[in-house]
């Protein structure tokens, strides 16, 4: 008779750890991007324990792998021994206390004394050839960005074949390396098929509440901005100097809220980015002055159906201008004009910018104006995490005429795994200066240009 053992009796999960373990139950390949001190290693170790003792197959093999063996021992070995300690004093039916595990210090290996005898082993990726020729039921690749790119493709992946094994890729961003590429793959795959093999999760310190807010503010004040963005805000682009809109600028904008009194009298603008079926989404963004509001998101609508949704928002919000992407929105534009809506403006992203000497095309100008608006105090919806990613992803360079050139939408979609529809819709609200319809200059026909309430 096998003794009954309480599993993980020492482990009290935090919210992000619970979400991770639920995701690992539902997906085979999970990519976890976390801030420092979130507890990813503890969660990973306990997942290995849980999987090992519940595996019905004989000879279960599980591996925790860090970039270096010394690092793996320092990070995970003590955690593993701590969380298996309940198995070292098991009360058997005859009243005796015995250990239900074998701990091998030299091999950093724990074997459970169950019928199937599964084990967990701690290894370093600095000697990956030691893994060749064996199989694995589950593998944790911690700080995957510091490993050689071929560790997974050439060594780990073949180990999973015979047992349909799983992998957790975990780490904190360190530039756009193979961890970043794997995150992009997971993001794209999960977006296309949320019930498929791949899952990805990003846990920033300003969202998890694992680090108290007061302490996080101290860390922010004591840490260089790019390091803080990378280590605590999970920004893969923090080490790059060509990101058009840094993530900290976006996060600051999410903390601002303007009351209606503050924006009353400012122009009311809609930015409309039609998608036309496919994986992209059709977005309507409403902005009044320095305040952008929650977007209206629609999926799998044809132009006529989406035009009806836009018409509903025009009736509800009474915008002074409606800017629509001309690329996919010709049908929407024609329908709205057919319905006698005024102030409908088509915006060709590849068209000529107003500031022709500063920007390569209209799309670059839209994003540049959006960036300047954020710097001037623009406020964003607080809980729109997709918008945060959309805005902080694109990079830029300059052409031979020294005009700012934004990364192509196709390239962004390839890296991000989806189109930055939310950001494009918001950027469209900056297509041209707008005057509110209740402006006295409009009522009395005076010739006056309405400028936005911020300085570029």
Task: Write the SSE topology.
Elements: H1 15-26, E1 29-34, H2 40-54, E2 61-66, H3 69-83, E3 90-91, E4 97-98, E5 101-104, E6 109-112, E7 119-124, E8 138-142, H4 150-159, E9 166-171, H5 178-192, E10 198-203, H6 205-208, H7 213-222, H8 225-231, H9 247-254, H10 260-263, E11 268-273, E12 282-288, E13 291-292, E14 296-298, H11 303-317, E15 321-325, H12 326-338, E16 344-347, H13 362-375, H14 385-392, E17 396-398, E18 404-406, H15 409-416, H16 421-428, H17 440-443
Parallel strand pairs: 1-9, 1-10, 2-7, 2-8, 8-9, 11-15, 15-16
Antiparallel strand pairs: 3-4, 5-6, 6-7, 11-12, 12-13, 12-14, 17-18
Helix pairs in contact: 1-2, 2-3, 11-12, 13-16
Beta-strand content bin: 15-25%
CATH superfamily of the largest domain: P-loop containing nucleotide triphosphate hydrolases
In what order do the strands lie side by side in the largest sheet? 5-6-7-2-8-9-1-10
Estimated radius of gyration: 27 Å
| Count of spatially separate domains | 2
Which structural category do the helix and sheet elements fall into? alpha/beta
The percent range for helix content is 25-40%
Q: Determine the mean pLDDT.
A: 86
CATH class of the largest domain: Alpha Beta
Ranges where pLDDT stays below 50 over 5 or more residues in a row are 1-8, 439-456
Task: Determine the CATH topology of the largest domain.
Answer: Rossmann fold
Tell me what the CATH architecture of the largest domain is.
3-Layer(aba) Sandwich
The largest sheet, given as strand count, sense and whether it forms a barrel, is: 8 strands, mixed
Principal-axis shape: elongated
Work out the helix count: 17
- Strands, total number: 18
Distance between the termini: 76 Å
């Amino acid at each position: 008779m096998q003794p009954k053992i309480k599993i993980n009796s020492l482990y009290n999960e935090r919210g992000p750890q619970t979400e991770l373990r639920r995701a690992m139950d539902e997906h085979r390949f999970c990519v976890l991007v976390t801030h420092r001190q979130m507890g990813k290693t503890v969660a990973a170790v306990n997942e290995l324990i849980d999987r090992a003792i519940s595996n019905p197959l004989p000879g279960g093999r599980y591996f925790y792998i860090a970039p270096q063996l010394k690092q793996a021992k320092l990070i995970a070995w003590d955690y593993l021994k701590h969380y298996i300690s309940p198995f070292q004093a098991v009360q058997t039916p005859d009243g005796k206390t015995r250990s239900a595990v074998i701990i091998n210090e030299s091999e950093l290996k724990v074997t459970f004394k169950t019928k199937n005898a599964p084990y967990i082993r701690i290894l370093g990726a600095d000697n990956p050839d030691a893994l060749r020729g064996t199989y694995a039921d589950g593998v944790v690749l911690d700080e995957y960005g510091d490993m050689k790119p071929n560790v997974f493709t050439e060594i780990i992946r073949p180990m999973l074949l015979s047992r349909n094994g799983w992998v957790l890729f975990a780490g904190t961003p360190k530039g756009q390396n193979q961890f970043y590429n794997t995150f992009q793959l997971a993001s794209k795959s999960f977006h296309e098929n949320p019930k498929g093999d791949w899952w990805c999760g990003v846990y920033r310190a300003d969202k998890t509440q694992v680090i108290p807010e007061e302490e996080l503010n101290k860390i922010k004040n004591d840490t260089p901005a790019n390091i803080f963005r990378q280590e605590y805000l999970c920004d893969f682009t923090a080490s790059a100097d060509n990101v058009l809109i840094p993530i900290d600028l976006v996060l600051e904008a999410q903390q601002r809220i303007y009351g209606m009194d503050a924006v009353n009298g400012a122009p009311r603008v809609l930015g409309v980015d039609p998608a036309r079926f496919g994986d992209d989404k059709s977005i309507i963004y409403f902005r009044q002055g320095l305040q952008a509001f929650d977007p209206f998101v629609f999926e799998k609508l044809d132009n006529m159906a989406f035009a009806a949704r836009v018409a509903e928002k025009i009736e509800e919000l009474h915008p002074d201008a409606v800017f629509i992407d001309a690329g996919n929105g010709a049908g929407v534009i024609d329908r709205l004009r057919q319905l006698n809506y005024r102030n409908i403006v088509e915006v060709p992203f590849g068209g000529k910018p107003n500031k022709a000497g500063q920007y390569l095309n209209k799309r670059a100008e839209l994003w540049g104006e959006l960036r300047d608006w954020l710097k001037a105090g623009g406020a964003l919806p607080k809980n729109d995490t997709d918008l945060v990613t959309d805005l902080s992803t694109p990079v830029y360079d300059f052409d031979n005429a020294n005009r700012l050139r934004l990364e192509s939408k196709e390239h962004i979609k390839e890296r991000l795994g989806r189109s930055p529809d939310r950001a494009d819709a918001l950027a469209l609200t900056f297509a041209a200066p707008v005057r509110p319809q209740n402006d006295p200059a409009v009522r009395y026909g005076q010739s006056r240009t309405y400028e936005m309430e911020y300085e570029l």
